[in-house]
Design a protein that fits this description.
- The chain is of the alpha/beta class and 381 residues long.
- It folds into 2 domains: 120 residues, 2-Layer Sandwich (Enolase-like, domain 1); 222 residues, TIM Barrel (Alpha-Beta Barrel), CATH 3.20.20.
- The chain contains 12 helices and 13 strands.
- It is globular.
- The two termini are 35 Å apart.
Length: 381
Amino acid sequence: MTTRDGSAGHPGRSVGDSAIGGGAVATTRSRKSHTPGANIAFAALPAGPREVFSRIAVVSLPMVTRFRGITTREALLLEGPAGWAEFSPFLEYEVPEASRWLAAALEYACTDPPLPQADAVPVNGTIPACPPGSVAAVAARYPGAGTFKIKVAEHGLDSLAEDCARIDALRAAAPGAQVRLDANGRYTVAEARTALRTFSRFELDYIEQPVMDVEDLARVRADVDRAGLGIRIAADESIRKASDPLRVAALGAADVIIVKVQPLGGVRAALGVIGASGLPAVVSSALDTSVGLSAGVALAASLPASARLGEGIPACGLGTSALFHSDVADPPLRASGGVLPVGRVTPAEERLSALAATPDRVRWWTDRLQRCWDHLRTSPH
């Protein structure tokens, strides 16, 4: 893995021509400028992304276990004047939502992130909705992690017994670790009440998004307070997928917000949401490659003290490269001693070649890139 300070760039660089064709990497010729800390004027973007990005690579990363219903993670990587960035909205996302992910990629590829307040950030381990017997092996992929997030509610309340067994298995594999849960909005309000009463026997940091609707989330949080369950509520989808992410704070729907660089449109947009919400924040991954994770690390390292759960930067959900058999950086951006270093990531050429997507997937992603690009250029912001 190659890292460099965020101030490094390549102003006015010229690069050679190449067509995408059936391959996964493209280069173009254009004059590119690198403006540290600048915001992107979307209406002033040129007609196509190849006039901004010197290279485009589409990759397909095999996963060590099923996560979010997938066993392979596809991503489109872009090299801009400031360095490499990632565009990897999940396949089901429509253009308006996916375009926010492209806005994040543009920012990170063309500008420097804010100055970090730390050289490294702590990370949590992530335990997918795997059989309890597999938990120890997954947890072992996060050496030094003192916090773990466990996926629950894969089948709503029907998964409750297995979810509890998964928590018990994690407790056995990592005694003393702080535990968070993530339901991805899969409960109804009534189911959430039942599940949270059951989960209250565990000492939990918080549970993310027990219900999907933000008004329902506010009801669940009020129920938890009335019942004295002692479980904090965190908002994830209500922040990253909402047209008004600040509604969570306005309704008192959560104690903590989960912020992700790509879905919120970039590091600076995420910092804006954090500041306006007035709530403590935890930075997490959208199942990014090492390139995208480095942007998450930049955000986490920029968290103001007022947005932290405690004195230090809270453990971030940025250790998800451990869920890939192979990543685009060599070595991948994985935690050492439970922390990740601050700095940009440059993909390894051999990894880009080995993980290159098939020609039909390259065409699908480059077409999606252009449609999102057109949306950014023509939609009001």
